[in-house]
Amino acid sequence: MILTMYEDRELCLLAQHAGACGFVSKGEDPRAIVEAIRKVIGGGRHFPQSLDKEEVTLSLRERDLLAHLLAGGRAADIAREWQVSQTTVQSYRNRLFQKFGVDNLADLIKAAVSKGLV
Amino acid sequence: MSSTKLCILVVDDHPLTRAGIVQVMLREFPQARCHEVSTLLAAKECLEAQAWDLVLMDQNLPDGKGIEFLAQRPGLAP
Fold first, then answer.
1. How many CB pairs under 8 A join A and B?
2. ipTM more than 0.95?
């Protein structure tokens, strides 16, 4: 069982491939660590589910745009509120598409929901 | 598995971390026997000397990485 300071998805996957039965961050709640250890001692495996999903990091503006898009906001309205051009808003939207690996608004919303960002 | 026979090896180069882990282990598993070492070399010697029920290993150790060490020992995990 690997104990580490880092909650790192790559490291967690490496530990699984190396044959570890568990992967725990030292920063976790001690009770959670003990539960994970109990699970492994009982013959189970413990790898944090939160590290199973690839993380998407958003800037404050990207988060704001995501919230607007989820609420059905139009580019023109968002541009007016931000006091920028619609092209700038579209650039931010395209960046969101890129970060989530999607090419349309419906998939963006689905992806954001599945990653718990909404 | 009976807790009376639980052998736990703690591999971490920080003495306070090791002490904390051992303290928690003994509180949760009072009959366990905990042994602590600070390097992969010492861990290797322990693993060759006897069987362990649980090895709690830090990733960053002075003489290498815990995961790489584990990957070189496919028979270590149950």
1. 63
2. no
